[in-house]
Write a structure and sequence with these properties.
Elements (H helix, E strand, L loop, with lengths): L19 H12 L8 E3 H23 L6 H13 L1 H7 L5 H8 L4 H12 L7 E7 L7 E7 L16 H17 L5 H16 L5 H4 L8 E3 H7 L5 H7 L4 H4 L2 E4 L2 H8 L7 H16 L5 H16 L7 H25 L2 H24 L5 H12 L2 E5 L17 H17 L21 E3 L4 E5 L14 H6 L1 H11 L20 H19 L17 H21 L13 H12 L2 E3 L1 H10 L5 H9 L3 H7 L21
Parallel strand pairs: 3-5, 6-8
Antiparallel strand pairs: 1-9, 2-3, 4-5, 7-8
Helix pairs in contact: 1-24, 2-3, 2-16, 3-16, 5-14, 6-11, 6-14, 7-8, 7-15, 8-14, 17-18, 17-21, 17-23, 21-23
Keywords: Hydrolase, Metal-binding, Metalloprotease, Protease, Zinc
Protein name: M13 family metallopeptidase
InterPro entries: MetalloPept_cat_dom_sf (IPR024079), Peptidase_M13 (IPR000718), Peptidase_M13_C (IPR018497), Peptidase_M13_dom_2 (IPR042089), Peptidase_M13_N (IPR008753)
């Protein structure tokens, strides 16, 4: 049995009762560098790097093998070769943009604008309205088109209005001007100023991120005629036709996330602003293609989106960007090769045991809740029983037969790949729900809960230390991957996920009194996080309302993981290892999993746009609410992590 915890890394200068995160990770936090091509470092990044190295071997092997024409291996090799052929890319310069920029010059009215935008969007240019295909929250046994606000280039609508981001806005205008100049457009400074002005007007009609995560407010099922009535100046049928979209079939019904955004957009589609919209569209074309063009554009693109917004010092090496490109285009083809060597059967079996114990722990916790009525408990248990776990990889991988690749045509490969994926998505309308579909590749270091499928999904790549040790003791595994499993199950019962029933339908299954009791608990948790300021962002606090879903997931995940740990290892069993009891090892493993450091600029960006709290609080603030942590380390009122018992939030009992 591997120990899973290296006690030499613990920092004796920091008491665990005062700061679990820094007691466990303090030495690493002081000594570990953030790679110059990264905005963060830590356990997640380490696993991402390891997975990336293995994927590189797969991709370079495919490129060297010269597999038969039409095979996935040949296409993988072609994609990578086209990305790595820098001599050809430099020789082409910005010439691949010329045809599209000339088409924009010919736009004289909004009818032509809508048609051209529809055509360009199919191959990757961003528009004013994003769409995707997913199960209908109201009727999860069918697919429906979803539409949401777009049109801006900064991370969030607040970047356009808050004084704190004035310098970012100035930098953005300069960046847009330089990119347009590199694309050989005249008056780049004037165009950039018009683009910022237009995007600021667009952003004024955007919903903020807290509103955008509201499952009820963003569920607006409308007919195409009803959507068109909100923005009559933008011909949605012409836009769809130009994008090779069957308007009647695909847009007959639309779940529109932010209806008022389209009403606001209508006020901006004026003759006076048409020149600005043309400039905006030129910018969309240049920006979407920048990663596939000459080094000057690539470097300028990184300078703003990497260095300015996130504080990243250096661009990632070209091979890493090439690997990301191939994964974006044929991720599941790469994943099908990855799992042959990187996902042993033992991992699936051990994960199956962990998930069973986590679900049993939730079952028992729900049964004991003092704040939930028997009526709601019965429905919660029905939903829990309906959970579908997916581990490792899909049963069947995506078919890439429709993708045509060319080792000499990078931008063409990128655009053809996007067109194939767009067609794949559009084909879902009218088809049965594909319950084997995955929204992450096997080589992705992450996990997710999908409310309309009521499923929890764990790709193979996250099933590695420090999250998962196939041969470690229970304390280590339940404190890390167990808490991740609990977190994802917990999303089914967080402030938004709890609004979906066991079939995946957006339906209220709570009594009014139970929902009121739940909201009172979550309101207290929001206030806890609102008061927190992370290191590197002095004067800026966590947005407890934006992060509440993930905070509920963290708190519930760790609480239930502890209960599952006790089920797997009854109280009193287990000898200390290196002087640490099993209970202490459980919480230390939790802290190891959140080992991370983040550049200050990236910390600020995440506080604005990320629904997750900073790593130090995902570790420390959670344990402050769990009585078992106090018992494990003898935490008292004199210690910094102490929280008065009446102030602790218990949603699911440990």
């Amino acid at each position: 049995m591997t120990q899973g915890i290296d006690i030499t890394q613990l920092d004796p200068a920091i008491r665990v009762q005062d700061d679990l995160f820094r007691h466990v990770n303090g030495r690493w936090l002081r000594d570990a560098p953030i790679a110059p091509d990264r905005a963060t470092a830590g356990s997640f990044v380490t696993l991402v790097d390891e997975a990336e190295a293995k994927v590189r071997e797969i991709i370079e092997g495919a490129a060297a093998a010269e597999a038969p024409e039409g095979t996935d291996e040949r296409k993988i090799g072609d994609l990578y070769a086209s990305f790595m052929d820098t001599d050809r890319i430099e020789a082409l310069g910005t010439s691949p943009l010329r045809p599209d920029l000339e088409r924009i010059d010919a736009v004289t009215d909004y009818a032509a604008f809508a048609s051209l935008l529809g055509d360009l969007e199919r191959t990757g240019t961003h528009g004013v309205l994003g769409i995707y295909i997913a199960p209908d929250r109201g009727q999860p046994d069918r697919y429906v088109t979803h539409a949401f606000q777009g049109g801006t280039g900064l991370p969030d609508e607040s970047y356009y209005r808050e004084d704190d981001f004035a310098e970012i806005r100035d930098a953005y205008v300069g960046h847009v001007a330089r990119m347009l100049a590199l694309a050989e457009l005249d008056d780049p400074e004037g165009r950039a100023a018009r683009i910022l002005d237009l995007e600021t007007r667009i952003a004024a009609h955007h919903w903020d991120r807290v509103a955008c995560r509201d499952a009820q407010k963003t569920y607006n099922l409308l007919t195409l005629d009803a959507v068109q009535a909100l923005v009559p100046a933008f011909d949605l049928t012409a836009w769809a036709t130009a994008g090779h979209i069957d308007a009647e079939r695909v847009l007959g019904e639309i779940v529109l996330a932010q209806p008022s955004f389209l009403e606001g957009l209508q006020t901006l589609l004026t003759d006076e602003l048409l020149p600005a919209w043309r400039d905006w569209l030129r910018w969309q074309v240049v920006h979407a293609a920048a990663a596939y063009l000459s080094s000057a554009l690539v470097e300028e693109n990184f300078d703003f989106y990497g260095r300015t917004l996130s504080g990243t010092e250096e661009m990632r090496p070209r091979w890493k960007r090439g690997v990301s490109f191939v994964e974006g285009a044929m991720g599941e083809a790469v994943g099908s090769i990855y799992v042959r060597t990187e996902y042993p059967d033992a991992a699936r079996e051990r994960m199956g045991e962990l998930i069973e114990n986590l679900i049993e722990a939730y079952r028992r916790s729900i049964g004991e809740l003092s704040w939930m009525s028997d009526e709601t408990k019965a429905r919660a248990l029905e939903k829990l029983e309906a959970f579908t776990p997916k581990i490792g990889h899909p049963e069947a991988f995506k078919d890439y037969t429709a993708l045509t690749t060319d080792p000499t045509d990078l931008l063409g490969n990128a655009r053809r790949s996007m067109a194939v994926e767009t067609a794949r998505e559009l084909a879902k309308i009218g088809a049965p729900i594909d319950r084997d579909e995955w929204y992450m590749t096997p080589q992705t270091v992450n996990a997710y809960y999908n409310p309309t499928m009521n499923e929890i999904v764990f790709p193979a790549a996250i099933l590695q230390p420090p999250f998962f040790h196939a041969d470690a003791d229970d304390a280590v595994n339940y404190g890390a991957i167990g808490a991740v499993i609990g977190h994802e199950i917990g999303h089914g019962f967080d402030d938004q996920g709890s609004q979906y029933d066991g079939t995946g339908a957006l339906r209220n299954w709570w009594t009014d009194a139970d929902r009121e009791a739940f909201d009172a608990l979550t309101t207290t948790l929001v206030a806890q996080y609102d008061a927190l300021t992370p290191e590197g962002a002095e004067g800026q606090n966590v947005n407890g309302s934006l992060t509440i879903g993930e905070n509920i997931g963290d708190l519930g995940g760790l609480s239930i993981a502890y209960r599952a740990f006790r089920l797997a290892q009854p109280e009193g069993d287990g000898e200390p290892i290196d002087g640490l009891t099993p209970e202490q090892r459980f919480f230390i493993s939790w802290a190891q999993a959140w080992q991370a450091k983040v550049r200050p600029a990236e910390t600020v960006r995440r506080l604005t746009v990320d629904p997750h709290s900073p790593p130090e609080f995902r570790c420390n603030q959670v344990v402050r609410n769990i009585d078992a942590f106090y018992d494990a380390f003898g935490v008292t009122a004199d210690d910094a992590l102490w929280l008065e018992p009446e102030d602790r939030v218990t949603i699911w009992s440990a």
